[in-house]
Amino acid sequence: MRILSGIQPSGTIHIGNYFGMIKKMIESQNDGELFAFLASYHALTSVKDKEALQNNMFEAAVNFLALGMDPEKSTFWVQHDVKEVLELYWILSNHTSMGLLERAHSYKDKTSRGIQANHGLFSYPVLMAADILLYDVDVVPVGKDQIQHVEMTRDIANSFNHAYDKEIFILPKAKVDEIVATVPGTDGAKMSKSYGNTIDMFGSKKKVKKQVMGIVTDSKELDEPKEWENCNIYKLCELFMNEDELKDLQKRYETPGEGYGHFKLTLLDKINEHFEPYLEKREYYLNNKDEVKDILAFGANKARKIAQAKMEQIRELIGLKI
Ligand code: TYM
């Protein structure tokens, strides 16, 4: 089974990305052949600053390696190092209806929030389809917000296969873990870089504390019992705690005497405890940039071999060879 997923290096990686996708990807290295990449071309839709993009890419690579990405076992690269994806993107554009792209939630959501509509943003799902179809992928682990993009990939693959009367593309399936399908942010909406409600995965102690202390709650006082069911702090604790710990926390909510500040500190401890074991490896890679670059180049070579072979078949099929 071939598994593929990508993440945009468009800012600091947050715990929504981690639980929604990174954790599942790292674990899936034992289930099949994993392809994981940093979607640098996709990030250009939002990052227009050279140094920010470079730093984000490096940091994202470091974080994946620290969390256990195994570059020998898996294929781990940066999207723009395999240019074939852009050729396929154009070819697939000719099998993608305007109507399909106009229905994309992510595009509608971004433009409704005032982000300028440009062609990159509009055709984003076609590039994503190319990412997936180039590698004959069976499964794509993603958070809920990306399901529609994987469905669009299936639609595009289907039209293409139909047009040339050949099952050249496998129809991929999105894999979404219901519990973490949408990790809430500090304000209760979906955690997202573009909503400014994130909690960093490897942020400085000070920054993560500020983010956690900023979680929005109701205004119940210390001496009142509190409802854990709809509390943003509790929802985030669910990601880090086992059942017994959650039962204890529920009791603390129901018993007057503690305030939300206490629960926030409990969450903060859990976050620090969760990411602690990866810090040393992360520090190592941060200080060994050349090694990180070599790892990504090695991954790009592996990915490119597959991409080139697939593109040969596609060119042949559609008449791009005399
Ligand atoms: P990106 O960078 O926006 O997000 C990376 C992954 O994190 C998931 N995610 C979440 N999951 C749960 N709760 C949240 N609050 C949350 N926020 C983000 C996303 O669903 C995603 O899985 N288009 C992709 C990148 C991409 C890609 C691909 C993915 C480009 N090509 C091909 C798969 C296959 C994206 O925007 O990810």
From TrEMBL:
Catalyzes the attachment of tryptophan to tRNA(Trp). One of its GO terms (molecular function) is ATP binding. This is Tryptophan--tRNA ligase. ATP binds at Q8, P9, S10, G16, N17, G143, K144, D145, V183, K190, M191, S192, K193, S194. CDD domains: TrpRS_core. The lineage of its organism: Bacteria, Pseudomonadati, Campylobacterota, Epsilonproteobacteria, Campylobacterales. It is found in: Cytoplasm. SUPFAM superfamilies: Nucleotidylyl transferase. It comes from the Bacteria. A motif ('KMSKS' region) lies at residues 190-194. Its EC number is 6.1.1.2.
